[in-house]
Specification:
Elements lengths: L1 H68 L2 E6 L4 E4 L1 H5 L13 H4 L4 H15 L6 E8 L5 E12 L5 E10 L1 H19 L3 E6 L4 E4 L1 H7 L3 H4 L14 H14 L1 E9 L5 E12 L5 E10 L1 H15 L9 H18 L2 E9 L2 H8 L1 H16 L7 E6 L2 E8 L2 H15 L12 H5 L3 E8 L4 H12 L7 E3 L1
Parallel strand pairs: 14-15
Antiparallel strand pairs: 1-2, 1-5, 3-4, 4-5, 6-7, 6-10, 8-9, 9-10, 11-13, 11-14, 12-13
């Protein structure tokens, strides 16, 4: 009996041991599970830290990007009607951090009245998914009651029901760009409608644009000149030194103005008043040149005509006394240097008053022109003939030998004795065949020009009948 009880006790102890082993096993499994859970928790914590760090870095990058781009940020909660505006978006309008609230109407109430409808229409169309983007340029009122041009872009978040719940975007200040664009438009309009020709080149003097007035002036269209050098207009009348000086002035002073002869598309030459200015960038580097040109051919011709009238006889076109004295002075100075002689011949048409009195001044004028043409046939390019008044003509020349001068004067005297108007005034032929001229030469090697003219005049009045030679 005792043995049976012992066996039962032993069996009970074994079962207790097995239970303890099972519980120990479960405990070990629980500990291992706890370790795994702890590790998972630790991993989650580490991952969360990494995520927070990455998020912080992302936020910093975003803030730096916004600060670098000078863009403002806004964030609208469409359900609560609350809004967030970044510091930059407030400063853009001249406000400090605490001067703009957190309501959506803070934006809507600052849109220019003329742009408010455009802003709302663009926002409503995007939030209703009629268009796939929100982008609008409007004017926003500043703290100083002025307005600045801004570009606003945004993206929305919709819930499962398709209702927009959040609207986030950026604001960019476009004021300076809009002002530049307006200036460019104004400049383009001025260039389009100005009556003066305008030519724009790059820094290498290659044409980039011309205006309609340029085409009208030169005959070249924009398509024909773009990409080419302005030298295609060159007339060939200016030496290389002229253009070298022009470019030197332009580079040193930034501008050049003057008159220049150019050639039109049809080959016709014309005078133009040209003003060239250099255009600089913010670094002070030349980027373009702008030339403004106008046709001054008629003005130039009028000036030349006035100058010609001041120094030439209106009837015969011969140089007057001023020009003759100047050229005679030059000839005397040349004679002194070269050792050559010069000759001055004084013609006085005798009985010229009788021609005017008998046949009229018109015929007298024709006679003077005819005499001028005949005398000019005796001259060389370096000789000068001038009318000093009435029927008196001075002829100056430079010869190496006195005899040659006297021979030429004889030739001129012979040609003048021929009938002046064989076909136009035949009724004068007989009378003019017998007209005479007082002709006296004066030879000069040195002395003032006025003395030569005075002695020549005296000779013509008969005080000296022989050619004079002064030393």
């Amino acid at each position: 009996m005792g043995d049976v009880n012992d066996r039962d006790d032993i069996q009970g102890i074994k079962e207790q041991l097995r239970e303890l082993e099972r519980q120990n096993k479960l405990l070990k499994q629980s500990v291992a599970q706890g370790d795994r859970i702890q590790k998972m928790w630790q991993d989650s914590v580490d991952e969360l830290k990494k995520t927070k760090k990455a998020l912080k870095q992302s936020e910093e990058r975003f803030e730096l990007a916004m600060e670098g781009s000078r863009d403002g940020v806004w964030d609208w909660d469409l359900e609560t009607k609350r809004a967030f505006y970044s510091t930059r978006s407030k400063a853009m309008l001249g406000y400090s951090e605490d001067e703009i609230g957190d309501e959506i109407d803070e934006t809507l109430n600052r849109v220019h009245p003329e742009d408010a409808h455009k802003f709302r229409r663009a926002a409503d169309a995007y939030l209703a998914r009629v268009v796939d983007r929100f982008e609008v340029i409007v004017r926003m009122r500043t703290k100083s009651e002025g307005y600045r041009w801004v570009l606003t872009r945004g993206k929305a978040i919709w819930n499962r029901a398709g209702k927009p719940v959040r609207f986030v975007g950026t604001t960019v200040d476009l004021t300076e760009r809009m002002e530049i664009e307006q200036q460019l438009k104004l400049g383009a309009q001025v260039m389009e409608f100005t009556s003066e020709g305008v030519i724009v080149t790059n820094k290498d003097a290659i044409i980039e644009a011309v205006n309609p007035a340029f085409t009208e002036l030169t005959g070249y269209t924009q398509e024909e000149v773009v990409g080419k050098s302005p030298s295609l207009l060159a007339s060939g009348r200016h030496p290389p030194e002229f253009f070298q000086e022009m470019w030197r002035t332009l580079k040193e002073e930034g501008s050049w103005s003057g008159e220049i002869w150019n050639r039109r598309h049809d080959g016709q030459l014309f005078a133009e008043a040209l003003r060239i200015s250099a255009i600089y960038n913010q670094r002070g580097e030349v980027t373009h040149y702008v030339g403004i040109l106008s046709d001054v051919t008629e003005q130039r011709k009028r000036v030349e005509d006035l100058q010609h009238m001041a120094f030439h006889d209106a009837l015969t076109g011969l140089p007057n006394r001023l020009v003759f004295n100047d050229r005679l002075g030059q000839a005397i100075r040349h004679a002194k240097r070269s050792g050559e002689k010069i000759a001055v011949l004084f013609f006085d048409l005798d009985k010229f008053k009788a021609v005017n009195d008998t046949y009229g001044h018109k015929v007298g004028d024709l006679l003077l022109k005819g005499v001028t043409e005949r005398v000019q046939t005796c001259l060389r390019d370096e000789d000068t003939i001038a009318r000093v008044g009435g029927g008196r003509v001075l002829r100056g020349a430079s010869w190496r030998w006195k005899g040659t001068a006297l021979c030429r004067s004889g030739t001129a005297h012979h040609r003048q004795s021929q009938p002046a108007f064989r076909s136009r005034r035949e009724y004068l032929q007989d009378w003019l065949q017998y007209r005479d001229q007082s002709l006296s030469p004066a030879l000069h090697g040195s002395g003032p020009a006025s003395e030569v003219c005075r002695r020549s005049a005296i000779c013509s009045q008969g005080r000296w009948q022989e050619p004079l030679c002064f030393s």
